[in-house]
Amino acid sequence: MNLNVLRYIIEVERSRSITGAAKQLFISQPNLSRDIRELEEEIGFTVFTRSSRGVIPTEKGREFLVLAKKAVKQYQALENYCSREEKDNISLHICVPRASYITCTFTAFLKKYAKGRQLSVNYNETGTLDAICQVSDRTASLAVIRYPDRYEKTLLPLLRLRELSYETICKFELTVIMSDRHPLAKASVLTPDLLSQAIEVVCDDTALSTYLHEAPDTEHNENSIHIHERGSQFDILTGVPGTFMFVSPVPDSVLSGYHLVQKKYQGPPKKMTDLLIYPEDYRPSRAESLFLEMLKEAVPK
Predict the structure, then answer these.
(1) How many Cα atoms sit within 13 Å of 46 on the Cβ side?
(2) Which Pfam families match (predicted)?
């Protein structure tokens, strides 16, 4: 039994006219007549009869309309309840790479929308393979994953195999950040030779390359510090002289806050993609839609 048809017959009773009800409902009169006829065939009795006073309910029709009005009212109450719950609460579970532009967007999102609302939020900075697994088993609703462009031919079939949809958030080349007190801080561009004597801070994500049987990026300085948590990178860059790091473009607010500078790299390009992934049957909540809208506006240019 179609809820819309229940709404139709309630309007027919109010209008006492199929033609008048059709105009109010913005549907054609023949289609409305057909819908009522199919409903009457389904329930086994006539809901309306025609008279000199217009279309009026039969005795059984009146009883049916009372129940139909209750059903529609209860459904509207349920819709309002769900709408209110989403409005008053923010529920968001997302996996993301270690990226400053995403973190800044997430902070701005909470600042704008979290006040006065109950929060159920899980913001998980993790590797690409772990993010894929969490979205596949629906531990997370959606994720932004990061990978070198050369992985794309093997990665995208994996996503399709796991029944995940995807869309590109941004494509970019890794840039270099370092302390504004670094000896190379005033260089206009950085070459491999210039960086060869500096200390590279590396935050590896080797699980994906191993899983895809792809060669990992081995073009790191011999003089390097490997970390596994992004939270330590800024402390190292500002506190350990001569350190630098390849990262996605960093917002100016982060650079100034940590006294860092961002430089172009004039060497073999390190091309990357940030990809939004989600289950094929995924429908974003209001909170997720708002966050994604802000994220797409904040992508590195």
Answers:
(1) 8
(2) HTH_1 (PF00126)
